[in-house]
Amino acid sequence: MTLDELRQLVRSIPDFPKPGILFRDITTLIGHGAGFSAAIDHLAAYTKEAGGQAIAGIEARGFIFGAALAARLELPFIPVRKPGKLPVPVLAIDYALEYGTDTLEVDPGAVEDGSRLVLVDDLIATGGTALAAVELLRRAGGNVVLSLFAIDLPALGGADRLRQIGVPAAALLKFED
């Protein structure tokens, strides 16, 4: 499927989660077998080009795309989790949200020192979560060589923020509004 065909599988929901927000819903994309498979094929091409050796996915929807991508390429999958979900000693990072803070954690034993990681999430907006994940994976010894997203909202600047710290960013679909 082409990227234009994949774009048609993303549902737009006005005024969610609050008035004035146009929410881009990927559940219609992942619920379409051929569309989801095609999206993973496109992400796989980016990953191969970057020489990715492992896939790191951000909880929760980054797990959907990241785990499927890792399985397709037969690469390790590294979950970047919300607090308290991993049963081993973790590395953690706090980061700012629009209203407050949040935390991400990773099992440092899951990251091979110097390995070429591809960070995956469903959507990049302001980039706060992705930037925190990059820092966390770097602390664990990984080299994030690419960040991949199903959707980019370029007006919010997240992909540009990743590029500013030396992490290339790519997305299958861009929604300018």
Automatic annotation (TrEMBL):
What protein is this chain from? Answer: Adenine phosphoribosyltransferase
- Is Transferase one of the keywords UniProt gives this record? yes
This protein's assembly is summarised as: Homodimer.
**In which compartments does the protein localize?**
Cytoplasm
Gene Ontology MF term list:
glycosyltransferase activity
What this protein is reported to do is described as: Catalyzes a salvage reaction resulting in the formation of AMP, that is energically less costly than de novo synthesis.
What family does the database annotate?
Belongs to the purine/pyrimidine phosphoribosyltransferase family.
Phosphoribosyltransferase domain residues? 38-151
Key words of the record: Cytoplasm, Glycosyltransferase, Purine salvage, Transferase
| Listed InterPro entries | Ade_phspho_trans, PRTase-like, PRTase_dom, UPRTase/APRTase
Q: Where would one find coiled-coil regions in this protein?
A: none
Major subcellular site: cytoplasm
Cite the EC number: 2.4.2.7
UniProt organism field: Novosphingobium panipatense
For this protein's source organism, the top of the classification is: Bacteria, Pseudomonadati, Pseudomonadota, Alphaproteobacteria, Sphingomonadales
Under SUPFAM superfamilies, the record lists: PRTase-like
* PANTHER family, per database record: ADENINE PHOSPHORIBOSYLTRANSFERASE
Pathway linked to the protein: Purine metabolism; AMP biosynthesis via salvage pathway; AMP from adenine: step 1/1
- Catalysed reactions listed for this entry: AMP + diphosphate = 5-phospho-alpha-D-ribose 1-diphosphate + adenine
